[in-house]
Amino acid sequence: MQKDAMTMAKHTLTVREATLDVLRSFGVDRVFGNPGSTELAFLHDWPDDIDYVLGLQEACVVGMADGYAQATGRPAFVNLHSAAGLGHALGNLFTAFRNKTPLVVTAGQQARSILALRPYLFAEEAAQFPKPYVKWSVEPARAEDVPAAIAKAFLISMQHPRGPTFVSIPSDDWARPGSVPEIRSIAGEFAPDITAIERLAAAIAKADNPVFVVGPDVDRNGAVEQMVAIAERAKAAVWASPMSSRASFPERHPLFAGFLHAAPGALAEALRGADLIVVFGAPVFTFHVEGYCDLFTNGTPIWQITDDPTEAATSPVGESLIGTIPKSLTALLSALPDTTQRQAPAARKAPPVPQAATPIPPSFALSRLSALLPPAAIVVEEAPSHRPAIQTYFPMAGADSFYTMSSGGLGYSLPASVGVALARPGQRIICLIGDGSAMYCVQGIWTAVQQRLPITFVVMNNSGYGAMRFFSRIMQAERPPGIDLPGLDFVSLARGFGCPAQRVTEPGDLDRALTDAFAHDGPCLVDIAVDETVSILFEERKKDAITSSKEITP
Hints:
about 550 residues, alpha/beta, 6-stranded parallel sheet, 20 helices, globular, disordered N terminus, disordered C terminus
C-alpha cells in the first residue's frame, strides 16, 4: 500500500522540465542551437515534440532564428554555448535588435558550485555581455528562478518595439527542483492618440501633393493591405524608406514611386515638391553618408507613425504619433476623408529590358530571376552592391515577399533564409546573396541540406566587395586592401555541404540553370559570374560627394 502511494506521488519537476513546459506554453516548436558542455544538462533526452535545429556556428544559429521569428510572427528560442558562443553570435544579435525581431536567447554558464573559482568557460557578469543590444538580460539569482526568467524574456521580447532578450543559465541549474510559473499573456497592441490621428487625416486631405514613406514595420506587422488602402484613398505617391529591410508596399503598384536613398541630398531631391510627408513604420530618416537635407529646414510638414518611442524622439522635425502599426493604420483609414478630387501621381516608368552580355550584367541576371521566379516565392537578400539593380529590375510583391537586415552587418541573410524556409514549409525561398556576404555564414547551407529545405541560393559573384569598391571611390580612398575576393569556389563549397550547385558564366545558360534550381527538391546553389564594374549605390547632390563620376559605370 505504501509503495502504491509512493508511485502515485506527484513528480517533482526539475528546472529543465519546467523550462520545456514554458517553451511549449509559448508555442515553441523548434530550438535553434549549437551545443556545448554547459548546455548538455538541458539537451539530454531531448523531447520528440520540439525540434532541435543545429547551426554550425552561433551567428548562423541566431540568423536562422531571426528569419524564423520574423516569418512566423512568434518569438524564437535560441540556445548558445557559453560566453564564447554568445560572442560569435553578437553580430547577428545586433541585427536582430535592429530588425525588431522577438528572440529569447540563452547561453550556458559554468556551474554555480565553482563560479567563485573563475573556472574554464566562466563568464563574469554574463548578463552584461550582450547589452545594449537586447531589451532585457539576466542571470537568475537562483536555479528555481530560471523558468520564470525565461517566461519573462518571452513576454518582453514581444512588446513593441519587439526585440531579443537574453538569459544566462548555470549548467547545474537544470537538474535542480523547479516549477512552471503562471503563464500570462499581454495584449501588446496599442492605439495612437485619436486627436492626433484626426489632425493627420485632415492634413492629408488638405495637401495638394502628399507623399508617403513606408518602412519595414508595416510589413513586419502584417499591415501592407491597410497601407495600400490608405495610399489609394489619399492618392499619394509611396516611397520605400532608406535601407528598408522589408517590402511594405507592392512595387508594381501604380502609386509606388521608388526607393529613397540613404544620402541626405538625394533623398531631399526625390521628395521635392511634396507639401506633406508622412513616414509609416520607419525613422525620419536613415542616412548612410553625411550631407545637408533641406527637408529639415524648408518647412515641409513631416509626420511619423511608429511603435518605437526612441524612433519618435530621434526625429529631428515634425510630429510623431506613437502606436502599433495595425491599430494606427486602422484609425487613420477610418479618419481619412475621400480624396476623389485629387489627381493621382503618374506611375513611374518601367525600366528598359537589360541586354545580355559577357560578363553577365547584374541587371540582366536580376531581370531573368524576376521573370522566372516561382509563384509566392520569398526573397531573402544580402547583395548590397547590387541593391539598386535589384530595386530596378526585380520588383517585390509586397506583403511577406522580401527580407534583409536592418543593421548593415553581413552574415544575416543566408542563415535567415533557412529560418524563413522552416516557417514556410514547401514554399520556395530565394537567398539572393553576394559572394562576399555568403562567406560570413556559408555554414547555413549545411543546415538547409539536413532539413531538406526548398531554398535556391543565388550568388551574385563579382569577385569582391562591390560596395567597398564604390565607397572607396566616393571617399577618395586610393587602393585600399581587402576588397578583391579571387578564388572562391562556391560550387565546391556547396557540394561539400551536400548541396547541388552549378556556376553560370554565359547569359545563354542562365534561364536553364535557374529553372532547374527552382524545380529541385531541396536546396540548390547557382553561382552567377557577374560583371565586376562598380555600381552607383546612391547619388548625393553635394558636388564633393562623388569625386570622379566618370569612373563609375552604373
